[in-house]
Design a protein that fits this description.
mainly alpha, 4 helices
Length: 114
């Protein structure tokens, strides 16, 4: 027999739950950071696509990506690029959390269901 205290096995339910939460938070933070950094390019791309649908030459105002970037910066400033960021983050945060947290959550839920 051992002379010291007997150590209990760690509670795997708590460990797995914290893993799920950590992965959900990390996934949400990573996608939100990427969206924040890349939204200026997406704004220029969206405006170029929208003007491409217009047949009127007066409506077409950007000749390319760099021209769109310069025009938005000159006319609207930095806020012009980030105007659509809040709704995007409201979508991306929870979606990424579910996407990156689901695989371990699936195993955890299956193991702990009655």
């Amino acid at each position: 027999m051992a002379d010291g205290p007997v150590l209990a096995a760690p509670d795997t339910r708590q460990t797995n739950a914290s893993l799920v939460i950590r992965q959900m938070l990390c996934g949400s933070l990573a996608r939100a950071t990427a969206a924040t950094l890349l939204i200026p390019l997406d704004t220029c791309k969206t405006r170029l696509q929208f003007q491409g649908a217009m047949s009127d030459a007066i409506v077409r105002r950007y000749s390319g990506l760099w021209d769109a970037f310069k025009a938005i910066w000159k006319e609207e400033g930095l806020i012009g690029f980030y105007r659509g960021l809040p709704p995007r983050l409201l979508y991306i945060g929870p979606a990424a959390g579910i996407r990156y947290g689901w695989p371990p959550a699936d195993g955890w839920l299956t193991a702990n269901m009655p």
